[in-house]
UniProtKB/TrEMBL annotation:
Gene Ontology CC annotation, any one: outer membrane-bounded periplasmic space
Gene3D superfamilies named in the record: SH3 Domains, Zn-dependent exopeptidases
UniProt-listed InterPro entries: MurNAc-LAA_cat, N-acetylmuramoyl_amidase_3, SH3-like_bac-type
Pfam family, one: Amidase_3
Residues in SH3b domain copies: 30-92, 108-170
Superkingdom field: Bacteria
UniProt entry keywords in alphabetical sequence: Cell wall biogenesis/degradation, Hydrolase
The keyword Cytoplasm is assigned to this record: no
GO BP term, example: peptidoglycan catabolic process
Name this protein carries in UniProt: N-acetylmuramoyl-L-alanine amidase
GO molecular function: N-acetylmuramoyl-L-alanine amidase activity
Cross-referenced PANTHER family: N-ACETYLMURAMOYL-L-ALANINE AMIDASE, N-ACETYLMURAMOYL-L-ALANINE AMIDASE AMIC
Length: 381
């Protein structure tokens, strides 16, 4: 008894000491690590007793923002998550590596990205697949040029193609520059959608810039649901439909992620903040270890976002048949860092059999698109 008491007092004292020393072993902001264990739990707090909010697997890359008591903080599914640090291997900073390369070469052999956010493709046209993305100021050694496209050497040793008119080495003439669709990640015109251009001249959302943010992508699968369904894939197909509907209503739509690649929360917010954005909507599907948990909810961060959350969420729950989990205030980073009114929608649980069977239908995803469109029309009027 005596031993136990003094033991717990010592532990309490140690914990107290730790609280007095904030930022112990603070990791560098935004450092990238690779998961070294087969499966790794992401927890809500830096403790083994804390709730598991997600899973990562070997080879996944995570961006780490701070460190506490041997745990590192990242973001998972739009919320703060903690990972035991000893399961992570630090990766070298690719940006630093790029800079070193460019210093050693004459600048004429390098290409610097000038647009905010640009797709890297497997070949010299927009019909080739997207293999990654790059951002304003990134510099790459130039390998070859084919028409209006530059082939560059990437930090991982592979090669990719970037539209020259989005770099400091423009090959396109003024004329072809106008005809060529921009290949920026956030610019939805990449798909050469002419109806989108026509419709932006009319319709009830004409004149509004809407940023649609499909959650996760690339190495970040988001939540993993029943049957191994990835949140990132369902989010992609849903956002494609949402984007089409919004354009049909006349909106100018900017998409933070086209295709399956990783974009950090900072980059998502940066894309939104680079435009005169009227509303930012992040799309997600939810997961929970208890199979019975189901339904949809909408998150907002600050009071100025509440009306947007209210309009879109009420439009959603009047249109779909999933359980209404309500509108919740949460200090999500992607919402906090976005200047425009912003919301994060959790469009159902991929860990609940009934939700999942509905979510996977295009009928449901159309209803979501319709709900967002109608909610925005109500919001702006
Ligand atoms: Zn998510």
């Amino acid at each position: 008894m005596n031993f136990l008491r003094s033991f717990s007092i010592s532990i309490g004292f140690l914990l107290f000491l730790l609280l007095l020393i904030p930022n112990v072993g603070q990791a560098q902001e935004g450092r990238t690590y690779e998961v070294s264990s087969a499966v790794l739990n992401v927890r809500g707090e830096p403790s083994n007793n804390s709730e598991i909010i997600g899973l990562l697997s070997k080879g996944n890359n995570v961006m780490v923002f701070q460190e506490k008591y041997g745990w590192v903080q990242t973001y998972y599914g739009g919320q703060v998550g903690w990972i035991a640090k000893h399961h992570l291997i630090p990766l070298t900073n690719t940006h630093t590596a790029d800079r070193n390369v460019s210093e050693n070469q004459s600048s004429s052999n390098n290409v610097t990205v000038t647009a905010t956010s640009v797709n890297i493709r497997s070949g010299p046209s927009t019909s080739y697949s997207i293999i990654g993305s790059t951002y304003s100021g990134d510099t790459y050694p130039l390998v070859a040029t084919d028409g209006d496209w530059h082939q560059v050497s990437l930090a991982n040793g592979s090669r990719g193609w970037i539209a020259s008119w989005l770099t400091d080495k423009t090959t396109a003439s003024e004329e072809s520059n106008q005809i060529s669709p921009a290949d920026t990640v956030e610019n939805g015109l990449t798909d050469n959608d002419n109806t989108a251009i026509d419709s932006s001249t009319g319709g009830s959302l004409a004149g509004y810039n809407i940023v649609i943010d499909p959650g996760h992508g690339g190495n970040d699968p988001g939540a993993i649901g029943l049957g191994g369904v990835y949140e990132k894939d369902l989010v992609s197909s849903t956002s494609d439909i949402v984007v089409k509907q919004l354009r049909a209503a006349g909106a100018t739509v900017i998409v933070t992620r086209l295709g399956d690649h990783y974009i950090s929360l900072n980059q998502r917010a940066h894309i939104s903040n680079s435009y005169n954005t009227d509303a930012f909507i992040s799309l997600h599907y939810n997961a929970f270890p208890i199979i019975g948990v189901h339904g949809v909810n909408t998150y907002y961060s600050s009071q100025s976002d509440y009306q947007l959350a209210r309009n879109v969420h009420s439009s959603l729950v009047s249109n779909v048949n999933l359980n209404n989990r309500g509108i919740i205030q949460e200090n999500y980073k992607v919402l906090r860092s976005t200047n425009a009114p912003s919301i994060l929608m959790e469009l159902g649980f991929i860990t609940n059999p009934n939700d999942l069977s509905i979510i996977q239908t295009s009928d449901y995803q159309f209803k979501v698109a319709q709900s967002i469109t109608n909610g925005l029309i109500n919001y702006f009027n």
